[in-house]
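Data follows
____________
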Amino acid sequence: MNSLIELDTIDLGLSLGIIAMAMVLSNWQKLGLEGQLLFAAGRSLIQLLVVGSILLAIFELNNAVAVIGILGIMVTIAAIVANNRIKNKKSGLLPMVWGALFVSSALTLSYTIIVIIRPENWYSPQYLIPLAGMIFGNAMNSASLAGERLANEITQNSLEVETYLCLGATPKQAIFNYRKEAIRIGLIPTLNQMMVVGIVSLPGMFTGQVLAGTDPLNASSYQILILFMIVFANLLTAILVTEGIYRKYFNSQAQLIL
């Protein structure tokens, strides 16, 4: 395998030609997306360059405190984004969403780093930060999808929930089907990705390693590991988030509060 061909500043500038062509297409079709494309491209460029510079410094520092610090920032941002995407929600959900993301990600990463990869240092930024980033991003989506679905179902079917309660069901029993469906919705994107990976799409982890010169079979092994990590973290996140959300809708007397 050949080594990675590095891109310099000129190459990065030339890549903007792709965005320019997209803007031309938008203008041709009168879609009015030119401004959004330019803004999104500029924001992506700045964000990734800043993150790349920060991670370069952390990689060189190779310090556990710095690695844990950047992970804490990442999980906090993911929790805020996931919480903001949940509509019809009760107040005070952010700490619960943060805790769900933290627990699911910590369990997944701990098992992967300690049992499977076993780097020289458990906090090795080369492994911990990229893996955590993929886990946070996917778990965030799972939390927002499952959380919003459950909140909407409880709100829209309040009469049915109260009927179950009147018949002697506990709050958990009254919303069981809604919660099950919400968790399933949170897992659909991950399951769909697993069904077509390698056939329809080549994921970023696999593609990045192949571009870097890694043996394709080794890249496939890492991608398999990533997919298994993501599905577990997403499932656990959806379970914890829906558990926390449904409890917000009932008081200590098991009465529904909208």
Q: What stands out?
A: The two ends are 60 Å apart (CA to CA). Residues 62-248 form one domain. The chain has a mean pLDDT of 90. The first helix runs from residue 9 to 28.
